[in-house]
Amino acid sequence: MLPFRLVYHERYDLHLGEHVFPAKKYRYLRDRMLRTRFAAPEDFVEPEPATDDDVRLVHDPEYVAKLRSGTLSYQDILRLEIPYSRQMVEAFWLAAGGSTLAARMALGCGIGFNIGGGFHHAFPAHGEGFCAINDIAIAVRRMQSDGLIRRAMVVDVDVHHGNGTAAIFDADPSVFTLSIHQFNNYPSEKPLSSLDIHLADGTGDAEYLHRLGNGFRAALAMFRPELVLYVAGADPYLEDQLGGLSLTLEGLMERDRMVIRTSLMQGIPVAVVLAGGYAQSVEDTITIHLNTATVAKEVLEKMQTSGGWRHQAV
Ligand SMILES: [Zn+2]
Description:
With 314 residues, this protein is an alpha/beta fold. Helix content is 42%, strand content 11%. It has helices at residues 25-35, 52-55, 61-69, 74-80, 86-109, 135-145, 163-168, 205-222, 249-265, 282-305; strands at residues 6-7, 44-45, 111-114, 152-156, 175-182, 195-199, 227-231, 270-273. Strands 2-1-3-8-7-4-5-6 form an eight-stranded parallel β-sheet. The protein is globular and about 55 Å long. The protein starts with 5 loop residues before the first strand and ends in a 9-residue tail after the last helix. The structure holds zinc ion.
């Protein structure tokens, strides 16, 4: 049995039809985990959808009502870049419930893992870039409102800047946002994160790991979070169709190891969400996400054999 649960729901599929966003990847990843015996059926746990009250911790009530009632404008849907459907809305609510559950589980055993979520382009009053609501921010706000944490850090390594998350937590001293991304890529406007690491086109493993390592360690030294939300996008991969960085599969695994190990070593739990991934071959995207889970398992098991992971009292 895995040392942490995998949060998954069969209705995570966004029902996009033929679309560059491979919305079936959640099911494919679950299937690959079972087929390779990385996980057993009992390792999975189903989330409840977020409640509308949870969603309104982050999003404007008018926007939530428009999503719920199917009254988004044509402009709203164009900006979202995915077709509207009731299943799509339900999938986003489930993803937000899933990231919230993963955050709660991380506080218990050190790692929470949502096989979904990471919709970092959603703003309080609009969605864009395939993201209708921001599950990352909803999870943070729910943990805070339940009194489980005060301070959180979002570590966003998706190839695209975490613009929605940055805007949501702008001027909020309780949440530190770190985004490392390709500068010359969507979104063209990048609201300031607490720490933005802009990378040139084609940046490879060595420079990426060096800059992320320095930035992340410096962030942890100045801001002591009680929870890290790890937005583990697969799209910095060199064969990604929407990304222009050049990370290898090994480099991406080293990235995951750095973030997860550094956090757990300092007594900070990590909730992982998947975010983007548009490799030429969807199998590569699945491999990258599975590797993130494998790294989380290895790091947590190693810590358990050396005395166990302990949530640091802050
Ligand atoms: Zn992305």
